[in-house]
């Protein structure tokens, strides 16, 4: 016997998780499409060179890469993708003439990272990315946040906050405080504010450069931290930033851009309470150059961001000389699902069809097959129990799997052309309904259940 | 610069293919769910031992396996899955107590085989599998064919034929002709009838066993070929088979089982003309023990089967001592798409949203953002051109991408609270419509286009 376990850090997804996961994915696809984004797919396997090109991924990510070889292949030539951004950059460099710009694409797929296995961390997880490429546009910036909002709201994610900032404001602040050369290190430290706290960040910023710190003095640290903590909010925070940094051209541009984005988000119907400006939000990656986003579920901030992104100046510089600015975001589906599960708001289900037809011993299953086909035509999913075992056991199967109703037809019912309709949870049964009212009866019963149901 | 090509045998999927592909996948998911099948997902990476266990895959498939390693991992330990059946067997052995039987699951995902690259053959392709596990049931057999029919019909696949046979009939025939010990070889040869013709199969069957043939004499070959070619059809072919083999218990059981399946398929509304019995259909794999299926698109038989499967006695014997019979099928999505593309029946599209809002120079895009949000609420997808470039160029973008309508609002229209509605294909434009009739106008125009449209 071979042990049927999965490899370390990987996992099977069972129906109770997969059913809501598929539902959420479908709302994401529909939301992306409703904004005119088009799907693309790239292979799970990329050439190693594409993945490890300078700057394609952080050193940490590159250490976690899975190499792929087949018989007769050259070792070290192929690997599994670790995100959907590098493949997008390669894709656009290769297919630019076919797809043209502006190019609005979405991509949903598994990515692989050989991280040390830990609770809630998996070596394969799903990303849902969307980007608008080839334009430097505030409308596209705003639309990115609008889509995060639309997708999460459609997926019934509870109260969440999309936090915005603009790297131009941060760059202006660093310029104003005389810290221009050290921006990468400072921004990376600032990102840890929520995680390691004010004192932790202050210590990191003061640590000498040769010890991996930013080497700031106490005054500089105080100024940058005080600025980063201007407060979360929307318009008022920008007014405050303008007071402090308005004289700096970069910061002024960043502030104006965020005001335009807030104006467009209001027009797009994104409620104010879902938005926050956080002047300390940096999104460490060096390649962001304009707006940046993070999204947290209120009260579940410890899960980190479930939808993040930002604007970049040059997506595909490793693969083409053409400069391609863009803006986009990635929704971490598996992290979101883990959060919803822990928060108890995941509408779990183990059945995809609301109606179970009994397979009554001694009756021709063709009767059930014919009736089920009629209901499916009317858009009502139906399962027929596959074997004519004891009907009580079949009802137990339906109850366990979350079917709502059972249709039961024994030999007497066949002779009289009637059926019994059983509410599986309460065990209430409507007996002797005519075959001719099947669709109406089932639809009516499902509506009753939908509206809070029958008491047992 | 790094060359942005994909590795040999792999490919990118562009929007023109991905849009219909996503649409077809969604109809498959809905069809599976409407029969009560539930989704599961297993990792792309499995332990090598699971994939290469005796009988898990054919020697050919095992030679094509992609090995996976990460830094610190043991070489030879992990590999990419080459189908969804082996992972299903492992899954059910591992999670049997949680999911219980009968277990009706579907799984959709990429599989990987290091085949020699050739036109239309890819090293990564998508399979759509569904199986009913844990029961030996004619209803489940029939349902498998009913779902193939339902899924392909819902995906607008042109006239296709689901060919059925039952291994018990073939086993009975071999028994009757005194060829029991040589069934594997004979069945594998019979499968090639369509490909290499009668003479080719006859030669193979007569070739001595030590030269890889079945070692039959001319009389045996004639009898088996004549039987395999009894003719394609439905009930009549079974009557003929009964005349010849009725005395054999196995064959009689297989014939009775197929008759039950045909009876249930009729009840399920599967039209006769989509079904055929072919007594020569074997589906080489040793593990099939009952009904077998293949599906071809009429006139495009050279593409091979696009949906195949059958009944097996024991799914997971490598991983558990529990005997798990089942029946299932796999739809080869990528082969189907290649066929539809070549047949010219693939409804290609490069846009997911029917309406394009112009981004008129000198007007606040918030107007378009607000209107687009209203239309999306009403279920009408809308894209707003991201930059205020020359409107003619924006219309060119819409025409190229297959948007149907454009909404154009310049400064004069903003002042008067009106808009112009342009039919992108014919360039007809309805001018001066009031903002209050936006939804009705757009819906009306889309209906006009749906019904054959406006003449240019």
Automatic annotation (TrEMBL), chains A, B:
PROSITE patterns per the UniProt record, alphabetical: AA_TRNA_LIGASE_II
Subcellular location: Cytoplasm
CDD domains cross-referenced by the UniProt entry: HisRS-like_core (cd00773)
GO molecular function, one term: histidine-tRNA ligase activity
Catalytic class of the enzyme: ligase
Gene3D superfamilies for the chain: Anticodon-binding domain (3.40.50.800), Bira Bifunctional Protein, Domain 2 (3.30.930.10)
Catalytic activity: tRNA(His) + L-histidine + ATP = L-histidyl-tRNA(His) + AMP + diphosphate + H(+)
Lineage top rank: taxon: Bacteria
EC number: 6.1.1.21
Main location: cytoplasm
Classification via Pfam families: HGTP_anticodon, tRNA-synt_His
InterPro entries, per database record: aa-tRNA-synth_II (IPR006195), aa-tRNA-synth_II/BPL/LPL (IPR045864), Anticodon-bd (IPR004154), Anticodon-bd_dom_sf (IPR036621), His-tRNA-ligase (IPR015807), HisRS-like_core (IPR041715), HisRS/HisZ (IPR004516)
Aminoacyl-transfer RNA synthetases class-II family profile domain ranges (all copies): 1-361
Entry keyword set: Aminoacyl-tRNA synthetase, ATP-binding, Cytoplasm, Ligase, Nucleotide-binding, Protein biosynthesis
Family: Belongs to the class-II aminoacyl-tRNA synthetase family.
Oligomeric form and interacting partners: Homodimer.
The name this protein goes by in its record: Histidine--tRNA ligase
Organism: Paludisphaera mucosa
């Amino acid at each position: 016997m071979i042990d049927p376990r999965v490899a370390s850090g990987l996992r099977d997804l069972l129906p109770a998780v997969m059913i809501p996961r598929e539902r959420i994915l479908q709302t994401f696809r529909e939301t992306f499409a409703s904004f005119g984004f088009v799907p693309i797919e790239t292979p799970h396997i990329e050439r190693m060179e594409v993945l490890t090109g300078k700057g394609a991924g952080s050193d940490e990510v590159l250490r976690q890469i899975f190499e792929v070889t087949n018989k007769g292949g050259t070792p070290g030539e192929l690997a599994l993708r670790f995100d959907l951004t590098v493949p997008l950059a390669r894709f656009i460099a290769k297919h630019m003439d076919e797809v043209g710009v502006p190019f609005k694409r979405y991509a949903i797929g598994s990515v692989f990272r050989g991280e040390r296995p830990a609770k809630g961390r998996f070596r394969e997880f799903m990303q849902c990315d969307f980007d608008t490429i080839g334009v430097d546009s505030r409308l596209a910036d705003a639309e990115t946040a609008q889509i995060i909002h639309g997708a999460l709201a459609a997926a019934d994610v509870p109260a969440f906050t999309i936090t915005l900032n603009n790297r131009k404001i941060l760059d202006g602040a660093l310029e104003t405080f005389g810290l221009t050369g050290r921006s990468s290190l400072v921004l990376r430290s600032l990102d840890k504010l929520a995680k390691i706290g004010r004192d932790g960040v202050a210590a990191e910023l003061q640590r000498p450069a040769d010890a991996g710190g930013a080497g700031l003095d106490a005054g500089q640290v105080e100024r940058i931290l005080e600025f980063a903590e201007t407060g979360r909010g929307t318009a008022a925070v920008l007014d405050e930033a303008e007071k402090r940094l308005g004289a700096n051209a970069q910061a002024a541009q960043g502030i104006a851009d965020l005001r335009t984005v807030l104006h467009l988000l209001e027009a797009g119907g994104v409620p104010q309470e879902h938005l926050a400006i956080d002047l300390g939000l940096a999104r460490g990656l060096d390649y962001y150059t304009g707006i940046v986003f993070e999204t947290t579920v209120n009260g579940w901030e410890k899960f980190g961001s479930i939808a993040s992104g930002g604007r970049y100046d040059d997506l595909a510089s490793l693969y083409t000389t053409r400069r391609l600015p863009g803006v986009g975001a990635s929704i971490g589906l598996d992290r979101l699902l883990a959060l919803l599960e822990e928060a108890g708001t995941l509408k779990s289900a183990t059945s995809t069809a609301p109606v179970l037809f009994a397979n009554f011993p001694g009756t021709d299953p063709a009767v059930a097959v014919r009736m089920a086909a009629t209901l499916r035509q009317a858009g009502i999913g139906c399962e027929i129990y596959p074997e004519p075992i004891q009907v009580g056991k079949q009802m137990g199967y339906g109850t366990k799997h979350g079917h709502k109703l059972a249709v039961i037809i024994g030999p007497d019912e066949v002779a009289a052309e009637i059926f019994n309709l059983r509410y599986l949870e309460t065990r209430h049964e409507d007996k002797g309904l005519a075959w001719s009212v099947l669709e109406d009866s089932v639809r009516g019963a499902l509506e009753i259940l939908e509206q809070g149901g029958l008491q047992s």
